[in-house]
Design brief:
Blueprint lengths: L10 E8 L6 H23 L2 E7 L10 E6 L2 H7 L11 E5 H7 L3 H14 L6 E5 L5 E5 L13 E3 L2 E3 L35 E6 L6 E5 L7 H4 L5 H5 L12 H24 L1
Parallel strand pairs: 1-2, 1-3, 3-4
Antiparallel strand pairs: 5-6, 6-9, 7-8, 9-10
Helix pairs in contact: 1-4
């Protein structure tokens, strides 16, 4: 596969913001380092997309004009603090719900890798690939680069940090044959194949059903496939004019302090009960 010279690439600046109450900055920092290596060494040569990540310590403001990757507990905390669909500057933002992952027994670092790479590949969450199956019918496939191989078992280690597998452009190309590399870990054998635990958003252009999730297992969908409030899956199904910008940083900081105080109050009440 032809690789794009680094000199021809524009580097996106991404602030990694830790708002989680279950992860310290010391736990997040090595993951940010691993994600930077994944983008630089693995993702950029294949997709021609580059980024520079900067860890933002808790309580510190992110530089203006940067994209955000925000580490949160869950979607409820995201809403309480004021993290919505875009940064206050109207720029792309990804969310990682670390407490939700820990409760589910899944890797939050894989989720962070997943959200980062998909934000880089389709920052506006509006790209698709069209598979036409008749003169007047066909299916749009969401241009998501990690969903098909998202399960932790298909990830790989960078400096003892587990990161997500991701598909190559060939995964979206129906003419590609077996023997082509379709993903980083070379587990996928044909275009549009979904590995166990994988899924992809599909949109039938003829039946008016809107965005649906297609899974590898061909079983009824469960809550995991619906996506959290504010997730890429939810945002893809919402009109772009209905997206919300996040609150100003000062307001988010105040909300974060109040949120932690509320949690401390709840904990003290539990201990006193």
């Amino acid at each position: 596969m032809t690789q794009i010279p680094h000199a021809q690439l524009t580097t996106t600046q991404i602030s990694v913001i830790n708002e989680s109450t279950v992860l310290t900055d010391a736990e997040v920092t090595p993951v940010v380092i691993a994600l930077q290596q994944q983008v630089t060494n693995d993702f950029r040569p294949i997709w021609g997309i580059d980024a520079e990540l900067k860890m933002i310590p808790q309580g510190s403001p992110a530089p203006a004009g940067t994209w955000w990757l925000v580490i949160l507990d869950d979607s409820d905390q995201a809403g309480a603090l004021g993290y919505h669909d875009l940064t206050p500057d109207g720029l792309p933002m990804g969310k990682v719900f670390a407490a939700s992952d820990l409760k589910a027994g899944t890797s939050w670092s894989v989720t962070a890798s997943h959200e980062l790479l998909e934000m880089l590949a389709d920052p506006n969450i509006n790209l698709t690939v069209f598979a036409q199956n008749a003169n007047t019918t066909g299916t749009l496939y969401a241009y998501e680069v990690c969903d098909a191989c998202e399960d932790d078992r298909f990830g790989y280690q960078i400096n003892n940090v587990l990161v997500s597998d991701f598909v190559y452009p060939a995964w979206f190309e129906s003419f590609q044959v077996q023997g082509t590399q379709f993903d980083r870990m070379n587990k996928i054998q044909e275009p549009l194949q979904l590995l166990a635990g994988g899924y992809i958003g599909v949109f039938s252009v003829s039946d008016g059903s809107g965005w649906q999730q297609q899974t590898a297992e061909k079983v009824p969908l469960n809550m995991r496939h619906r996506g959290h409030v504010g997730s890429r899956r939810e945002r893809r199904a919402i009109l772009r004019t209905e997206w919300l910008t996040s609150l100003p940083l000062r307001k988010i900081t105040n909300n974060a302090q109040q949120y932690k105080q509320h949690l401390q109050t709840i904990q003290r009440r539990k201990q006193a009960a």
